[in-house]
Amino acid sequence: MSQLPSCPQCKSAFTYELENLLACPECGHEWDPHEKVADEEAFIVKDSNGNILQNGDSVVVIKNLPVKGATQSIKAGTKVRNIRLVAGDHNIDCKIDGFGAMALKSEFVKKA
Questions:
Q1: What is the rounded distance in angstroms from the CA atom of residue 41 to the CA atom of residue 37?
Q2: End-to-end CA distance of the chain
Q3: Which pLDDT score, from 0 to 100, does residue 1 have?
Q4: Ranges under pLDDT 70 in the chain
């Protein structure tokens, strides 16, 4: 059985096939999976060296980054595993040991 993609609106994993469309039972959104592939290709995130990043990649922080509300900063050389790309100014969501969930800008990381 193949893995169906998550809902693009609410990110629910409980999607199902409805004729030639995919549907989400939680928010009621229906979409064409072939159009979704075209949208993902248009969303490209590059690191500080111009390498294209993808979901699940590992990256290394290239400079000390202060963390609002924390007494310490994220040190240069910190390796971050299993990133998730999102749209917006801070386009990398990740978890960093000792800090928890974080949003980083791709211009301050390089692909590991």
A1: 6
A2: 33
A3: 46
A4: 1-2, 36-42
Distance CA 77, CA 6 (A): 33
If one counts every other C-beta atom within 10 angstroms of the C-beta of residue 102, the result is: 16
**What is the dihedral sign for C-alpha 85, 88, 51, 62?**
negative
Q: Is 19 left (phi over 0), alpha (psi -120 to 50) or beta?
A: left
3-state SS assignment for residue 106 = helix
Burial call 24-61: b when 16+ CB within 10 Å, e when fewer: beeeebebeeeeeeeeeeeeebebbeeeebeeebebeb
Sign of the Cα torsion 26, 29, 31, 37 reads: negative
